[in-house]
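User: Structure please.
Assistant: Input sequence and predicted structure:
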Amino acid sequence: MGMFQGINVVSVPVPDLDEGRRFYRDVLGLGEPLYDLPDAGWIEFGTGERSGNLAITHVSSERRPGVPEETTVVLDVADCHEAHRELTERGVRCDEPVVFPGYVVFCSFYDPFGNRLQMCSPDRADQAKG
């Protein structure tokens, strides 16, 4: 067995913790933070039973969130097409879902600061045929 046992938390840089808290808690529906430490520049949310947590961390205005070279957080969803519809209805900027037949459906979406996140689900279309 390897040294690592899973992902504990992935951190997303945001310039405004209050706006970030509202977006991740209310718009994405992650609920109340597990850790809400604005004095430390850290707010951490649970993302579900099977995975690690998602944190937002305060960064100075000189640092630009959403830079393409940054790490992308990918969240599991039951149905990527349905999640895309729900987030779009909530006013979240979303790219169209991309399907790799028989494997995965994924979709990029963006927080108010331009950070790209993604969501994915298994491609169930081929499973329904078989």
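Strands lie at 9-14, 35-37, 42-45, 53-58, 73-76, 98-100, 104-110, 116-122.
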